Amino acid sequence: MRKLLFQSLFRSPLTEAPPSASDAALAELGAALKRSARRSLGRSLSIREVDAGSCNGCELEIHALSNAYYDIERFGLRFVPSPRHADVLMVTGPVTMNMKEALERTYNATPSPKWVVAIGDCARDGGCFAGSYAVVGGVSAVVPVDLYVPGCPPRPIDIMKGLLALLEGTNVEMPASQG
Ligand code: SF4
Predict the structure, then answer these.
(1) Are 65 and 106 a contacting pair, CB within 8 Å?
(2) Which of 61, 111, 115, 142 has the fewest C-beta atoms under 10 angstroms from its C-beta?
(3) Are the C-beta atoms of residues 168 and 34 closer than 8 Å to each other?
(4) In angstroms, what is the span from residue 152 Cα to ligand 1's centroid?
(5) What's the 128 CA to ligand 1 centre distance in angstroms?
(6) Centroid of ligand 1 to alpha carbon of 13 (angstroms)
(7) Residue 153: DSSP 8-state
C-alpha cells in the first residue's frame, strides 16, 4: 500500500486530458447550428431520442451533448421527453423486433414536418447485429430516414455536424402555430 501511494505521487494521470474549455471550433459549430435552427424553424430545435435496440454506446455520445463541455442547449438545441414536441427523432441501434412497433408509434406521434436522424452504424444497416434473428434491420427498414451519422459510435461533434447538415439542407416553413 505504501509503495502504491509512493508511485501515485510520480505517475501521470491515466485518464485523458479534458478538452480545452475554449474550443473555438465547437463554439463556431454551435453558433452555426443556432443560426440554422432560427432560419429554418424560427426557434430552437427539439430532439426526441429513441433507442431502438442499441448497445448504449451511441447513447453515451448523445448524452455527452448535454454535458458541461458540449452543452448544446446553449446553442438552442434541446432534448424533449415526448415525440409530440419533437422536430427530430434521433434513433440509435439496429431496430429490434421488440422495438419495431414502439419506433413506428413514436414516428406517428411526431408532428410533421419531422426528420429522422439515424445515429451510428447499427442504425444505418444493423451494423454488427445485422442478420440477427432479433433484429429487423437498420432504421430505414421501419421508418424513413433523412440523415445518417456514421460511426461506432459517432463522436458528439459528428452528431452536431450531422444536425447542421440536416438544417442546412432543409428549407421547411413551419406553421405559425408550431413556432
Ligand atoms: S453503432 Fe456501435 S456504439 Fe452504436 S449501437 Fe451499434 S455497436 Fe453500439
Answers:
(1) no
(2) 111
(3) no
(4) 5
(5) 8
(6) 28
(7) S
Measured by CA distance, the residue closest to atom 6 of ligand 1 is 122
pTM score: 0.83
pLDDT tens by residue, the chain, 179 residues? 778 778 877 777 666 666 665 688 888 899 999 999 998 888 889 999 999 999 999 999 999 999 988 999 999 899 999 999 999 999 999 999 999 999 999 999 999 999 999 999 999 999 999 999 999 999 999 999 999 999 999 999 999 999 999 988 854 444 443 33
Backbone phi, psi, residue 134, to 5°: -95, 0
Residue type at 26 in one-letter notation: L
Regarding the beta carbon of 55 and ligand 1, being less than 6 Å apart is answered: yes
Q: Is the CB of 61 under 6 A from ligand 1?
A: no
